[in-house]
Amino acid sequence: MWRDLAPVGRSATSGGYFRQPWASAETELRSWFAEECAARGFTVETDGIGNQVAWWSPESASGPGVLTGSHLDSVLDGGAYDGPLGVASALAAIDVLRDRGFAPDRPVGIGVFVEEEGSRFGRACLGSRLVTGATTWAEARELRDRDGVFLGDAVADAGLDPSAGLLSLERVGTFVELHVEQGRDLVDRDLAVGLASEIWPHGRWRFDFAGQANHAGTTRMEDRHDPMLTYAMTALAASKQARLAGQRATFGRISVEPNGTNAVPSLVTAWLDARASSDDALASLVGEIGRQAGDRAGRDGTALTVTAESVSGSVAFDPELAARLALLGDWPIIPTQAGHDAGILSDAGIPTAMVFVRNPTGISHSPDEHADTADCLAGVEALADVLAELAGP
């Protein structure tokens, strides 16, 4: 399966992946998933926006099911493992259970949620948010990508029909997501597998710095209203405040108008990704960054507008479930600073757990993202044990 996935959406230049939702690579991946499920005798249900689910439900199975899976989209120039590892491992874990002769008492499903990364339309975990009702279709369809394409049009262009409805989670009693670890906790512990305790609260805020366009050569420095200077100070302030508080703050995307080499900009738009250990700490961090940015804007003669675009509160996974599963392999229970569909389903009231697979460098959202084959196979065995525990007698 990994060999089949490897070339899809991969850049020949960087080696990274461009698997944007409702575009050609992601469509090919959805077809790949359907083919893998068909080869195992599963029927795939695809909803009106591209979310998919397939169930292993032999005659012995009844009642609320155990859903596993992840996502297949990527960030821009992303890694191979973030998302697809959870989908391929879910398929492989069911293969392992079948080889063991395991007959589930409850159905076991594999789900794939669209636009988990939020890299195209700016709303992380959008597929699972829509399925759980955390976001409405009326709101989502008006989102635009960088080229100005409405999400509703992108979905239709991909051959999907939102009026066909969304996946139902009524059949789901428990959700388990396997994911490559996006950090070094397991590396430091010298362990291949761990479980999640919580997801830090996090979000994305758009900072619009407005100034006055002018000539780069003839305009004296003291006569400028340069929004780039306000942004530059804000980026440095964000880094300093996050370091002092032990939190996370990143400006990873900016847009400049008119974007000319010999012109003072009229507008700089920058997106802040901020994460913290608690909801209060996140609010404090973003508030302080905004305050310092506003103070600098006053000195630069520029104007600042801050807009929250996507904010997720803290998620504490079911502690009893995590403790129960940890006993299966003496696995550690660790926090994560990355957002996941598992967090959205947990917030919707579904008992949820996560299985992490060691990432030897800790690098993620990058072509350098990696997991060793031996660790991936350990993750498959761990997921099989978890599914057997949850779907067994």
TrEMBL record:
Record keywords: Hydrolase, Metal-binding, Zinc
Cofactor note: Binds 2 Zn(2+) ions per subunit.
Domain of life: Bacteria
GO MF: hydrolase activity, acting on carbon-nitrogen (but not peptide) bonds, in linear amidines; metal ion binding
Binding-site positions, Zn(2+) 1: 71, 82, 179
Gene3D superfamilies referenced in this protein's UniProt entry, alphabetically: 3.30.70.360, Zn peptidases
Signal sequence annotation: none
List of residues binding Zn(2+) 2: 82, 117, 365
Coiled coil start-end: none
Entry's transmembrane regions: none
InterPro entries linked to this entry: Amidase_Cbmase, Bact_exopeptidase_dim_dom, Peptidase_M20
Cofactor(s) listed: Zn(2+)
Binding-site positions, allantoate: 204, 262, 275
Family affiliation: Belongs to the peptidase M20 family.
PANTHER family for the chain: ALLANTOATE AMIDOHYDROLASE, ALLANTOATE DEIMINASE-RELATED
Protein name: Allantoate amidohydrolase
